[in-house]
Write a structure and sequence with these properties.
Length: 341
């Protein structure tokens, strides 16, 4: 383990211990902010897993909605525990991810083409779900807030239990993505992203590798959807299934640092508190100020740095090395004489 990884692990462990006691140190407002931040981290890790294969997906809201709608409908109509509904949502997500992934992941596909096709799937899904009145239509579905705690029914009056659940989910998501990228599947994914033609010549199944990562990422999003439905007590197609949720997630992954394990953690840990403070202080005067902040930060990073926060030291070391490199030797002999003439 390198020194940098040791530092990251130590900071991560200290942060996790601090997060364990955070509900007893902050007000309800900031506790809700932490819940939202951990939810974004959970999804960011899952989404970043697919991005490691140079696949920019805008349809993962579909899988978020699959988990949210499945668990909510089973609870409202049949009284089935949302924990079991979460498993049903995961199964439905696999059923949805396999054919859609097979359609868009076959053959050689560019970064932009994949993003465009996934956006098309997301908008089609929003239209279909919003048109079916039996599952809420454009109005969505509401869950009556609980009056008493019931762990089996995924219901608590206080936000603290939801906080510890999403903290465990976020930690599991970080671990899962780390293990995937260290496995043979992760090696095949990286090789296919760097040179797909060469990877296929060495026996890497491009479709099989991408499909496996696509399904893993989708299932994690399904779990996130079930959590958010039970926590917010409301499910609606447009903000959940559409790109409105995925775009902030992708922005914060880029801000944290693409290609790093902790990038999807650092981005939300910095941006979410900043956005909540700005919304609290200036939200009434400037509606939608969070998107303004995301855009400004991204523009400054792309214009002046070009990489995410965790990649700044690497960028700085490369800059220092280029400045310290000796100048190329001056030409001598006949070539120099000709040049002087």
């Amino acid at each position: 383990m390198t020194r940098r990884n040791i530092i990251y692990a130590a900071v991560g462990a200290a942060s996790f211990v601090l997060l364990l006691v955070a509900p007893y140190l902050v007000s309800t407002y900031w506790l809700k902010m932490l819940i939202y931040m951990l939810w974004i981290i959970f999804m960011g890790c899952a989404w970043h897993l697919l991005l490691r294969g140079h696949l920019f997906s805008l349809m993962h809201g579909l899988f978020l909605g699959a988990g949210a709608y499945t668990s909510t409908l089973l609870w409202l109509h049949y009284g089935i525990s949302p924990w079991l509904g979460m498993l049903a949502g995961m199964a439905l997500t696999v059923i949805l991810a396999l054919p859609t992934g097979w359609l868009i992941l076959r053959g050689t596909i560019s970064f932009v083409s994949f993003a465009a096709m996934t956006l098309a799937f997301a908008m089609i899904a929003v239209f279909i779900v919003s048109s079916i009145t039996s599952i809420g239509g454009s109005r969505g579905l509401s869950i009556t807030p609980p009056m008493t705690d019931n762990a089996w029914n995924y219901q608590w009056v206080s936000p603290q239990p939801y906080y510890y659940i999403i903290l465990a989910f976020a930690a599991a998501s970080i671990l899962i993505t780390h293990l995937v990228m260290k496995s043979r599947l992760g090696l095949r994914l990286r090789s296919s992203a760097q040179n797909a033609r060469l990877a296929s010549l060495y026996g890497v199944s491009l479709l099989g590798t991408r499909m496996a990562v696509f399904v893993i990422s989708a299932v994690l999003f399904s779990v996130a959807g079930t959590f958010w439905a039970q926590y917010s007590h409301y499910v609606k197609a447009m903000p959940l299934i559409g790109p409105e949720t995925i775009v902030p997630v992708s922005l914060m992954v880029y801000i944290g640092g693409v290609g790093t394990i902790w990038g999807p953690v650092v981005g939300p840990a910095i941006m979410i508190p900043l956005v909540w403070v700005a919304r609290r202080e200036f939200g009434s005067q400037f509606p939608g100020i969070e998107m303004l902040l995301y855009g400004l930060v991204m523009l400054m990073m792309l214009r002046f740095v070009g990489v995410g926060i965790l990649l700044w030291p690497q960028k700085y070391r490369a800059w220092r090395a280029s400045r310290a490199a000796p100048p190329p030797p001056a030409a001598s002999g006949p070539a120099a004489e000709t040049e002087g003439a």
